[in-house]
Design goal:
Shape: globular
Helix content: 25-40%
Mean pLDDT: 93
Structural class: alpha/beta
Low-confidence stretches: none
Order of helices and strands: EHEHEHEHEHEHEH
Oligomer: single chain
Number of strands: 7
Largest sheet: 7 strands, mixed
Distance between the termini: 42 Å
Strand order of the largest sheet: 3-2-1-4-6-5-7
Strand content: 15-25%
Radius of gyration: 16 Å
C-alpha cells in the first residue's frame, strides 16, 4: 500500500487530557502520516506528552487558532493536509474518507451536524453556527457546516494570505477557499475532552467582522 502523502495538523492549547488519545487514535488509523502538533503556548503538560509520542512538535507562542494553523501549514511537507482539533471531539477514523475525497476534490469539509453524539454540542453553539451560515451566504457560501474543526485540503490550495489569529480563522478560511472544488461529508462528533477555549460572544463578533471585511 502506498503512503498517504498526508500531514495532519493538530492545534494544541492545554489539551493534556486528550492529546495522547488523539495521537494514538490517528496512528491506529494511518500509522505513517506526518503528525504535527502546534503547541500554542500551553501551560500544562501537552507539549511533553506530544513529544513522548514521537511526533513533530512545533511552538507557536502567540496564542490563537489561526496563528497555530498558519504555523502548522509552514511545516507541513505532504501534499494532503488534514486539519483537526485534538480534543477528541472529531473521530479520526473518518480520515480515510477525507483522503478518498481528496482524490477528486481540492477541499473536504467535515459536517458535525450529520452524526453528533447526544450532548456533544450545546444549543448556543448550534444557534451561533446558524447565524454565521446566514452571514456567509452573503459571500455566496452555502455550507451546512461553517465552524468545523475537521477539514482536508491539498497543500497547494491553501490560501497564501490568511491573516486571522483566533477562532475567526474558520470563516476567513472558508471565504478564501470559496472557489475551490470542494465537498462536505458527514462525520461523527463527540463531546470534547477538557475545557473549551471558545468565547462565544467575543469569537462570534470576530467571525462576523472577518466575514464582512474579507473579500
Amino acid at each position: 500500500m502506498s503512503k498517504p502523502e498526508l500531514s495532519i495538523i493538530l492545534p494544541c492549547l492545554n489539551e493534556e487530557n486528550s492529546i495522547s488519545k488523539c495521537i494514538n487514535n490517528i496512528k491506529n488509523v494511518i500509522f505513517d502520516a506526518e503528525i504535527i502538533v502546534v503547541n500554542n503556548n500551553s501551560t500544562d503538560k501537552s507539549k511533553q506528552i506530544a513529544l513522548n509520542k514521537k511526533v513533530m512538535v512545533i511552538d507557536e507562542n502567540k496564542r490563537g487558532y489561526g496563528n497555530a494553523y498558519r504555523t502548522g501549514f509552514k511545516k507541513a511537507s505532504q501534499k494532503n493536509i488534514i486539519m483537526v482539533d485534538c480534543d477528541c471531539s472529531y473521530d479520526v477514523k473518518d480520515i480515510p474518507k477525507f483522503l478518498e475525497k481528496l482524490k477528486n476534490y481540492d477541499m473536504v469539509i467535515g459536517n458535525r451536524f450529520a452524526n453528533p453524539d447526544k450532548n456533544a454540542m450545546n444549543s448556543l453553539n448550534k444557534f451561533g453556527n446558524s447565524i454565521l451560515r446566514l452571514f456567509l451566504k452573503l459571500k455566496g457560501i452555502n455550507h451546512k457546516e461553517v465552524c468545523t474543526g475537521f477539514i482536508g485540503i491539498k497543500k497547494n490550495k491553501i490560501p497564501k494570505n490568511l491573516k486571522s489569529e483566533g477562532m475567526e480563522f474558520s470563516s476567513e478560511f472558508l471565504i478564501k477557499t470559496k472557489n475551490l472544488n470542494k465537498v462536505e461529508i458527514p462525520i461523527k462528533f463527540h463531546k470534547r475532552i477538557g475545557k473549551s477555549k471558545l468565547k462565544r460572544f467575543r469569537d462570534g463578533f470576530k467571525h462576523i467582522k472577518i466575514i464582512l471585511l474579507t473579500k
